[in-house]
Fold this protein.
Amino acid sequence: MKSGPRRALVTGGSAGLGAALVDWLLANGYEVVVLDRDRPWTGKTSVDFIRCDLASRTELDGVLPDLVSGGPYDLVFLNAGINATGKFEALDPRTHVEVLRVNTEAPMVIAAALFEAKACRAGAAMVFVASLSHFTGYPGAASYAASKDALAIYARSMRKYAASRGVSLTVAFPGPLKTDHAERYSPEGADGSKRMDPDRAASLILTDALAGKKTSIPGAGNRAFAVVGRMFPKPVTAMMRRLLYDRLKS
Amino acid sequence: MIGARSRRILITGGNAGLGLALAKKLARRHSLLLSGRKSQNEVAGTLPPGAGYVVADQSDPEKSALALVRGIRDFGWDGLDNAVLNAGIGIAAVDGVDSAEAIRQTLDVNLLAAILQARALFPLLKKSSGTLTLIGSVAHKGSATIPAYAASKAGLHGFARALRSEWKGQVAVQVLHPGPAKTDIHEKAGYDPGRMRALFLAPDDIAAMMASAIASRRSPATLSWVRYLNGGAFTGRRL
Ligand SMILES: NC(=O)c1ccc[n+]([C@@H]2O[C@H](COP(=O)([O-])OP(=O)(O)OC[C@H]3O[C@@H](n4cnc5c(N)ncnc54)[C@H](OP(=O)(O)O)[C@@H]3O)[C@@H](O)[C@H]2O)c1
């Protein structure tokens, strides 16, 4: 069935979890298409790079044909995301707009375009990167929480359709990672040592995706936290408030 | 105290369906401002007497938030006891996949508009120690027929969960998830529920459950047959 090497698409592949995914894929013989605002900083020259700011509908519409023709893919990682922490009402409306555009709308539009164009091979896996906050609530990042929950449920809603095309959908719910992203948005004095190394998260998520699992929560601690959050949503959200919201400065 | 005094209540999408049914229920006891996409002329005669109306098209989320704030000021209100963010659309996915246009329209009208409206209404709600009510749907757990709609409602769910915690002690935040109701939303969505429609609740009964859930300020709350059969449309708190 398969002709040539396996191909993968990673959005937000220039840094953080995305870059870790790209490293793993390259090391495992994949040809990789990276979509990001900035070029990969690790000097990865062996990827096809598509520049696009996903907050812009016009830019995304402009590169959709390239994304499609970059396929057919065996693996798709809809990973690009931005956060905005702070008191909800104190953040600029534009910030909330961008969070929704980049985290929810863009991956949904890309997934739909790839499905319509049949740009995924039979047997392919598509991964939507949501957030552990799906299970815990996220006071101090209300629009971010909304954006990631919406994405997780879009993926769940599309699972049957995808399966009819031979594509498995995995929703990843990573907890805090040791990336620039997390560092920028976590409260001052937060304990960074508990955050997971992106390389480790990438390999755990990849393992789940390649096994066709519906969900991937990398790390036993995070999995336990998700279970507790599902059983006791209110106390867990209250705890998240103490950990995150009450430590915000603005 | 709740139920004892006249409240200033904003209902988005108040010119049709569930929003209008809720407005009709509350009009005698409370002061109402309704919003919608349609013009004043198009809705004249359908609104309950005394209710104000403001055009706020949510396909431009930022502008819709500004329009609501302006509408409230022009109506002479300096505070807000209740904001019921109810306006919403569904677009049935064609052959299982939502078009880019449908995804953007659904997320803008159902989710982003509500987020930006919540932010814009915060000072008015805070002043009155008010309640922000987001109208979700039982589809917030996922739906293969309307994936983008389900996503938008899941977004409202997660948003309410975070914001309820953030605004604790200032403004009560809740999300209500109605089950299927006999409004025009399905026809507008291009979806024919067929014989299933017989099982849909009457808008009036959902509206009654909405009113008592709003008075109770609890969140999240599912408003469907289970609650209905337990007397949800007739008992409970009064708004
Ligand atoms: N009916 C159900 O089975 C059901 C079930 C679960 C949840 N819900 C939710 O309940 C809410 C009300 O639904 P419904 O059944 O009453 O729907 P409906 O009868 O179709 O009424 C929708 C309302 O939303 C307004 N609206 C639509 N697009 C708008 C836009 N771009 N800008 C401003 N307003 C807009 C409409 O105003 P215009 O007429 O001016 O366009 C109308 O007032 C929605 O959020 C819906 O998702 C409904």
